[in-house]
Fold:
Amino acid sequence: MATARASNGGVQSLQRAFELLERLADTGGEASLSELAASSGLPMPTIHRLIRTLVTLGYVRQNANRRYALGARLIRLGENASLQFGTWARPLLAELVDEVGETANLAVLERDEVVYVSQVASRRHSMRMFTEVGRRLLPHGTGVGKAMLATLDTGEVRALLDRTGMPAYTEHTHTDVEGFLQHLGEITEQGYSLDSSEQELGVRCVAVAVPCAPVPTAVSVSGPEGRLTDEAMRVIAPAVQRTAKRLSEQLAARQADE
Structure:
């Protein structure tokens, strides 16, 4: 592959363009041409040519301060990819629902927000759920968001919280950065996160991050506090952990086949 890229200018340019997009994403905001050149090691003329093409296509935008950021055209690609991921995972969510009798969800972390990409509702119980496919929420106030943030470096979490803030959805939502970081450490040790009326009063959720997913991803089970008691969680949490492990294994198998 390295030889093919070196001998084919088109393939090499495509690789470099995607590397620039990923470097822009890693900045969490915006970057100048000189900063991109320094971080990528590419010559300034190459950076300029690639960025100009990406701006023309709408995948990068130039801000008023002449710095560059990811463009709006990437949103559609990301959302479609997330929804396809959710469709593929749906059978495993259905099996989880059959096992525990409560609604199962799959979410990813996209542009500092939790995006729900799949949901299988419980057939045993009827209940209005605040979550629905396509809904976006800040991660600090959701079980899936906390499970995903617990897998990130502390510096990444701090930077994200600086960008989003920590508004309170209910009186139970975490709003203190230091206390929240300590809470994430507890989630890591426990192996799953709990949302007890932090996003919506009366609703409880248990969530587990999916290991080795291409983007931060978590699976969860949610329902009313009256049913998702501490006793019930002793059965439900291991079931969610098993589903997260199976999702990770199937992802690995699919990537190996590609």
User: Anything to note?
Assistant: Residues 73-100 form the longest helix (28 residues). The radius of gyration is 20 Å.
